[in-house]
Amino acid sequence: MTVRIQDVVESLEAAYPPELAESWDAVGLVCGDPQAAVQRVLFCVDPVEATVDEAVGFGAQLLVSHHPLLLRGVHGVPADDPKGRLIHRLIRSGIGLYCAHTNADTAAVGVSDALAEAIGLTVTRPLAPHSAGSATGLGRIGSLPAPEPFGRFVQRVAENLPTTAWGVRGAGDLDREISTVAVCGGAGDSQLSAAQAAGVDAYVTADLRHHPAGEHLARGAQVPALVDVAHWASEWPWCQQAADVVGAALPDTVEVLVSTRRTDPWTAHAAGAAPDSGRTPA
């Protein structure tokens, strides 16, 4: 049986229905012939030079990414433009590109489920369901196998996600007992109020901003403690989930691979001077 790009697309869209995508999003097949044969598929978070290099090296006919390449409208893809250069290289290399973004974020089993599983949570429900009782929606709520101090929980998150220069940051009492946890893959400070309303002990997400985080913590000791991770790291576990979707749906003649290229943009981290060093803020 010859597997074609369209077959891979159909398996992905059964798991991550395009109609779940936000109206502003750009999901689906970006380039490639739906009727082209596929033997190898690479899964990644970001469609960038590094992952295209990896797809070429792997001999892939399809690259599946979480983040869109052409999220905002464009009027051309010249080869001297960074995104245009990628499109030209993919086409010359016979590689299609498919993107599953906010539809993968909110699917019944999607990005946040993969994040929750990676850090050892048993998922119970969406954090922000599309409707009452819905299995779809943004974020997930789950529980740990056993309660543990917040300091140990922060370490748990760091041990189970890929290492980045950004690292893993915690905000809260290190001795606080953590049992129930909300997670949201990607930038999730818009869901701080949902995490608080859910009554969880901690909230894990990416790209937490100073003011929303500070205002959240100022509400008192009962609000969820916060764990902030790198955006890329929070979404990378989804790549294996998506690869498993395709692997289960299609014959063994299709080989799937999860990208190992760290495409988080941050490349260095410095802790700075210790508080007791005698230095004061400028």
From TrEMBL:
Coiled coil (residue ranges): none
Keyword Metal-binding: yes
Pfam families, per database record: DUF34_NIF3
GO molecular function: metal ion binding
Family per record: Belongs to the GTP cyclohydrolase I type 2/NIF3 family.
Quaternary structure note: Homohexamer.
Protein name: GTP cyclohydrolase 1 type 2 homolog
Organism, scientific name: Saccharopolyspora gloriosae
